[in-house]
Amino acid sequence: MIDFDQSISRLGTDSVKWDGRAAVFDTDDVVPLWVADMDFAAPPEVRAALAARAAHPICGYTQVPEPLFESLIGWQKQRHGWEVEREWAVVTPGVVPVLYAAVRALTRAGEGVIVQPPVYTPFFSAVTENDRRLLLNPLRLQDGHYSMDFEHLEQCARDGGKLLLLCSPHNPVGRVWRRDELETLLAIARKHDLIVVSDEIHADLVYAPNTHIPLATLEDVPERVITALAPSKTFNIPGMGLAFMLCGEPELRRRVRAEFTRLHIESNNPFSLAAAEAAYRHGADWLDELMVYLAQTQEAVLDYSAAHLPGIRALRSEGTFLMWLDCRELMVARGLDDKAMQKLFVKKAKVGMSPGTLYGQAGAGFMRLNLGAPRQVIMAALKRMRAVI
Ligand SMILES: Cc1ncc(COP(=O)(O)O)c(C=O)c1O
After folding, report:
1. Which of 36, 84, 108, 340 has the greatest number of CB atoms lying within 10 Å of its CB?
2. Any atom of ligand 1 within 6 Å of the Cβ of 227
3. Is residue 251 domain-shared with residue 316, that is, in the same domain?
4. Are 182 and 223 contained in the same domain?
5. How confident is residue 319, by pLDDT bands cut at 50, 70 and 90?
6. How close is the Cα of 309 to the center of ligand 1, in Å?
7. Are residues 35 and 155 in the same domain?
């Protein structure tokens, strides 16, 4: 049994979440429930692999070991029923770099790239920082449930969209897209000749009975889907900086990979390689326990907020360790704007969440809560929120 209730201080580790608080919240006196990593120890086998590698005194240039690819392929088959082929996989320093590289490789300056807000902030910057045109296809929210607006997606394609950046499962709204939704999306992509980059970094973090479906498995022949994924969120090793691009279409893969080659980004460090392989090989039981723990925390938050946080509606996440809190009623009742609401939570409740506006205008009135901490920490934060509202 893994003890996820164990409190582990991260202070002094240059943790963005903890040691970076003052820069983000203007105070250190806040419980950080923001940036998407977890305050849990990585799986014991991953820590053992790191220790074993550190025991060797030389950290020279390191090639990507074939067993790492074997572990990735085994993991995808076992967890997602996805038969990944060896040559589809390219090791990269992160998932976000794959988004950026795909935008650069597959579109020209000024061309349209579609994103579905509210969505993880780098989806926007991947487009704007590369001088492409942002085409917004906002998700629809009805009765606390988000869905895609497919008619509008077609309009975006007609307006010149060449590439769609899909977040699957979706950060921050916590949707795990169903097969029929993904099939409709792919049909639109075929009809309008869109290429889809599917960011599946949260794919392993899904609550039963939901099931993650890798978008690429819905293609009969690899044609227009590029997948970006990593062991980083799954096993709480995002600081390692290792991810994969998977693409079964050789020319697409070559073009995106060339963006990395042009910058001579071709190697990884011995620690990230060792950690990733150990995680995919030995992390399944740890992950199963993690998901039980996170699911229980989510239930506790849903119950507590319904009973004690008037004006805040916590939406149930189908996947990710993130929750999306609809605070619009609270804002109206208290006459707050987004800034004032953030100030209320940070300064009065001493709770540091991510304001919804970080994820586009569609996130106004919402807060993103990171569940990846011992449950007692989350519940204490909610109690302080109760006291101030
Ligand atoms: C949807 C999504 N993609 C990518 C990332 C970050 O990926 P990486 O650190 O591998 O670039 C995150 C982190 O929060 C995320 O939520």
Report:
1. 84
2. no
3. no
4. yes
5. very high
6. 30
7. no
